[in-house]
Amino acid sequence: MQVNITKRIDTPEGKRYCPVVVGPNGRIKPDSVMVDGRQEKHPEGAYYLDWTEDGKRNRVSVGTDATVAYNCRTRKQRELDALASGLIVSNPLEDDSRLRISAAVEDFLEEMQLSRQRKTWMGYIVSLRYFQESCGKRFLDEVERKDLLRLAAFLRDTKKLSSRTVHNKFADVLTFLQAQGVPKLIGKNDHPRFIEQEVSIYEEEELSKLHAVCSPYHSTLYDFLLMSGFREQEAMHVTWSNVRFNANIIEMRWKPQFNWTPKSYKEREVPVPDELLARLEAHRKSLPASRSSAQALVFSTANNTHDKHMLRALKRNAKKAKLNPDEFWLHKFRATFATTHLQAGVDLRTVMTWMGQTNLESIIRYLKPARSSTMIEKVNVSFAAHKRMRPHLLSTEPMETAMK
User: Fold this and answer.
1) 8 Å CB contact between 238 and 299
2) Percent of the chain with pLDDT over 70
3) Which of 29, 62, 147, 338 sees the fewest Cβ atoms within 10 Å?
4) What is the C-alpha separation between 299 and 219, in angstroms, rounded?
5) Can you give the three-state secondary structure of the chain, one letter per residue?
6) pLDDT, position 90
7) pLDDT digits (tens, 9 = 90+) for 132-175
8) Closest to 128 in 3D by CA, of 153, 156, 101
């Protein structure tokens, strides 16, 4: 009896079991399957063992990790070979009385796919794959505190993830375990720690250099992100009908035609300055009729499809402006939007509403101290008396001479 491995993937026709691709060493190539004779990459879905026993076809989920699936296939093949030789197998692969981790993961991910944004769902896929790699347990009731501590060390030392990413992946696994009814296994001090870094914003000098080398399209996009505070996905899905030129308002609305919803399912309206509306109007006039209609995307490709390369273009433009591309990312415009409004005196709750945030803590971190020349002048005035009382600090003589 031969044990085969398939992967259950998403296709336009629905779920489908496809044979995996095996490398020269006999191992499974992660996420690679054969679809109608073509090799394709499918990170979604779980692996399954497939075999026939006593005339009955059997199919068992073995999780989302290719290595785990390969090892399970090896064990099952040995079990069947032993049975065929008349040996008694005391530890079969299946145990219907206990919930397998692989099965629980598959069910959880399917639920996340139906109820969450694709980006969130993909994040859970990675987090739970790492958990299965580090854990090594087969059944959910075997998971204990040490397995979670081992996960944190695995993410930090083996996967070389940042402390913030380790914290987030760890939290994903805790959410999964809680959904399965697993009792709380760890204490507060067991959670991976990370340093809450100061929010980064763009300085005017940086933006001036960036705009100087940009195309009109990207220059308008960056002003839009800066003056609306929209997230990347929100900017990708805004249509001309959402730009209310007469009211100085940009709307963030649910887009069923694109199968997309705003984060936290919250719609909102953001007031924007005349400067941005003038730029958007000029951008719209430069577009053909098919891309300037009310339902067309404001920022799109020549084929009127979503612009999925906003980040790549930003880093390319930063490099062109002889700036450090690593210091440029799209969310930084949003941070600059919040900080600019807060420093201008807009109250916290109003900025929270404009940004679509759900708690004040998320906004307070954007209250970055001002660094303008005006603020430096105020600081100098504050300590003017200190300067007058210590004239020796202004001496240009070497310290040894001044001390004599």
Assistant:
1) yes
2) 88
3) 29
4) 12
5) CCCEEEEEEEECCEEEEEEEEECCCCCEEEEEEEECCEEEECCCCCEEEEEEECCEEEEEECCCCHHHHHHHHHHHHHHHHHHHCCCCCCCCCCCCCCCEHHHHHHHHHHHHHHHCCHHHHHHHHHHHHHHHHHHCCCEHHHCCHHHHHHHHHHHHHHCCCCHHHHHHHHHHHHHHHHHCCCCCCCCHHHCCCCCCCCCCCCCHHHHHHHHHHCCHHHHHHHHHHHHHCCCHHHHHHCEHHHEECCCCEEEECCEHHHCECCHHHCCEEEECCHHHHHHHHHHHHCCCHHHCCCCCECCECCCCCECCCHHHHHHHHHHHCCCCHHHCCCHHHHHHHHHHHHHCCCCHHHHHHHHCCCCHHHHHCCCCCCCCHHHHHHHHHHCHHHHHHCHHHHCCCCHHHHHC
6) 56
7) 999 988 888 889 999 999 999 999 999 999 898 999 999 999 99
8) 101
Tell me whether residue 365 is exposed, middle or buried, using C-beta atoms within 10 angstroms of its C-beta: 0 to 12, 13 to 18, 19 or more.
middle
CA–CA distance, 168 with 316 (Å, rounded to integer): 29
* Distance linking the first and last C-alpha atoms of the chain: 96
* Nearest residue to 147 via CA among 163, 164, 130: 130
Question: Rounded to whole angstroms, how far apart are CA atoms 334 and 350?
Answer: 15
